[in-house]
C-alpha cells in the first residue's frame, strides 16, 4: 500500500501530465512507482530544452522508430517533428537515412568485416576529410 507521500507524488505526477498534455493518455497508465519515475525523464526529453534541438530529437526518434518498425513511435515522432518545424523534404530525407544506416550495417555484417580494421579506416577517412575541409577554408 502506498504511503501518503507516495500517493501525493502520484497525484502530482498525474496532474503534471494533464497540465502538459491536456489529459492523461492511456499509455501513461503505469504502476504508481514507474509513473512517478518515468514521467520526469520523458517530459524533460520530449518537451524541455536539452543539448539537442527539439526538431533534431524528433527526426532522430523517427529514424529509430522506422528501424524498429514501431507504428506508435513513428506516428508520435513524425507529428512531433512537424510540430517543431520539420519540412516534407526533411521527413523524406530522414526516411532515406533510416534505411541507409541499416543497409550499410547489413552489408558490413554480411562481409564479416573486421571491426578494428573498420575503425582504423574511419579514422583515416576522417583525417582526409578534415584536411580537405581545412584546405577549403
From TrEMBL:
Classification via InterPro entries: AhpD-like (IPR029032), AhpD_core (IPR004675), CMD-like (IPR003779)
GO MF annotations in UniProt: peroxiredoxin activity
Family annotation (Gene3D superfamilies): AhpD-like
Residue ranges annotated for the Carboxymuconolactone decarboxylase-like domain, each copy included: 38-107
Domain of life: Archaea
Keywords for the protein's UniProt record, in alphabetical order: Oxidoreductase, Peroxidase
Record SUPFAM superfamilies: AhpD-like
Pfam families in UniProt: CMD
UniProt xrefs under PANTHER family: ALKYL HYDROPEROXIDE REDUCTASE AHPD, BLR3452 PROTEIN
Protein name as catalogued: Alkylhydroperoxidase
Organism of provenance: Haloferax profundi
Species lineage: Archaea, Methanobacteriati, Methanobacteriota, Stenosarchaea group, Halobacteria
